[in-house]
Design a protein that fits this description.
The complex is a heterodimer.
Chain A lengths: L4 E2 L8 E4 L6 E5 L2 H10 L6 E4 L12
Antiparallel strand pairs in A: 2-3, 2-4
Chain B lengths: L1 E3 L1 E4 L7 E4 L1 E8 L2 E2 L3 E5 L6 E4 H6 L9 E4 L9 E12 L3 E10 L6 E3 L1 H7 E6 L4 E6 L2
Parallel strand pairs in B: 6-11, 7-10
Antiparallel strand pairs in B: 1-13, 2-3, 4-5, 4-6, 4-9, 7-11, 8-9, 9-10, 12-13
The chains are: A alpha+beta, B mainly beta.
Chain lengths: 63, 139
């Protein structure tokens, strides 16, 4: 099963657009819309958008 | 259908890899759809919550929806407000449902698939020891 490990530390707490699962970063932004538009400007119409989690703290649900 | 956990390298400890139950989903609203998004399956979350920028991409005026406040372990002093809208959610390679999603300007919220809506529509089994999540349309 396709199961890549992401090394996205430089983008923590920001949003990135990936070319595909496990693929390269083709757009970065402070939110999903920014990352999506950056990817479009780079020629990627169907990027995979991801909010990069921080490794400085663990995640617990907001609710 | 089985989906893999997604793995993230810890910047403070390169030997440490954090596994997260994240899957690819697509949201659409009317004729507008955002590109694929990685969303965290969060069984402790009461509702499905997305950052407001996802609503922006869908051209939803997010504050026009009914609101609900949420808080976590930080207590009620750290409340966030989410505004709910009906959207169409597709789990890539599996299926689609219509559900109510809350949008919030909280920077702590990316894309969360919680109990109301998502767990109503799909049968979800976490198999962390196998590094997979088994998701099926509700029978």
């Amino acid at each position: 099963m396709d199961n890549p490990t992401y090394d996205l530390a430089e983008y923590e707490d920001r949003w990135v657009a990936l070319s595909e699962p496990g693929g390269k970063v083709v757009g970065v932004g402070q939110d999903a819309n920014e990352a999506n538009k950056a990817a479009e400007r780079n020629g990627y119409k169907e990027p995979l958008i991801l909010k990069v989690p921080s490794s400085d703290y663990g995640y617990i649900p907001v609710v | 259908m089985k989906f893999p956990y997604q793995h993230f390298q810890d910047k403070n400890n390169p030997q440490l890899v954090i596994a997260k139950p994240m899957i690819q989903v697509r949201l659409s609203h009317g004729t507008k759809g955002i590109s694929l998004c990685f969303a965290l399956i969060d069984s402790g979350d009461d509702a499905c919550l997305f950052h407001k920028s996802v609503a922006d991409a869908l051209e939803i005026d997010y504050k026009q929806g009914p609101s609900r406040e949420f808080s976590g372990i930080s207590g009620p002093q750290a409340k966030v407000t989410a505004y709910f809208h009906r959207v169409h959610l597709t789990v890539l390679r599996l299926g689609s449902i219509d559900l109510d999603v809350g949008f919030t300007d909280s920077g702590g919220v990316g894309a969360l698939l919680g109990q109301s809506g998502f767990f109503d529509g799909f049968e979800i089994t976490f198999r962390r020891f196998k590094d997979t999540i088994d998701i099926r349309p509700r029978g």
